[in-house]
């Protein structure tokens, strides 16, 4: 792997030198590709446009990010920003590289979580939009546009991760291919309409299985927090260290998202009593009659009414 890592460092240097003036664009791309963006930005937008697509986005994002966590625990991937110093291969000829605020992630590097989750989630959007365009236009050319944008976006996110020294090129490629496969497979098996117990058991299952894997690897003698110490050691600014990039942070997000999917579908409060009360208030608001005691409609409410003159 030493040769692959070394070539990755020189590629990152070439990318930084040739596109240094576009650093803000690369930083925007890496923020858009952040797995958190799938839950905070992509999901609300897609759910507003199409309920099933929005549902699929959360499901695919949670599963792909959970798998990325497991892969990172098992593969022990290095990150460029600390490998340069740890390898001691560049002491005589150090590369001209710059770190950024988004560089100093604390988790292992392989495969790229940004590339993996982005490839999976954006495939859901691209395939849904492509199918929609074809159903309306019957144009293969027009329906191919979302897939072209998908590929361009994925390339931009991948290069941004190399640019900021968060990942080696092979980690980005591995994450992109894995995410694409997951997006294709999981988007065909969206559990919309499944009972609440399915989502509760899925959330608990992911949480427990992750703890079991972590415990098993720890018992085998592996230090799964090894990357945190390296990130703190080689990050050029200590304030850039963010522990929310550690693996367990994503685990809580994924399990909570799946549980939330189930609760959002089946946990609906009874609105009938509130609707009755609202209709009475509206009626007497536009009439000259003094309303009756509204506490008879909703015993726990305190209502202040004003008679219109």
Characterise the protein shown here.
- This protein is an all-alpha fold and 309 residues long.
- It is 67% helix and 0% strand.
- The protein folds into 2 domains: 2-266, no CATH class; 271-309, no CATH class.
- It is globular, with a radius of gyration of 25 Å.
The proportion of residues forming helix, as a percent range, comes to 55-70%
Distance between the first and last residues' Cα: 84 Å
- The dominant shape is globular
Number of DSSP strand runs? 0
Q: Class by helix and strand content?
A: mainly alpha
Total discrete domains: 2
Keywords: Endoplasmic reticulum, Gluconeogenesis, Hydrolase, Membrane, Transmembrane, Transmembrane helix
Membrane topology: Multi-pass membrane protein
Transmembrane segments: 55-75, 115-135, 147-165, 172-190, 196-217
GO molecular function, one term: glucose-6-phosphatase activity
Describe the structure concisely.
The protein is an all-alpha fold.
Question: What are the key terms here?
Answer:
309 residues, 13 helices, disordered C terminus, 0% strand, glucose-6-phosphatase activity, single chain, mainly alpha, PAP2/HPO
SSE diagram, text form:
Layout (H helix, E strand, L loop, with lengths): L1 H17 L4 H10 L2 H15 L1 H25 L4 H8 L25 H25 L2 H4 L1 H19 L5 H18 L9 H24 L6 H9 L12 H20 L5 H14 L24
Helix pairs in contact: 2-8, 3-4, 3-6, 4-6, 4-9, 4-10, 4-12, 5-11, 6-8, 6-9, 8-9, 10-12
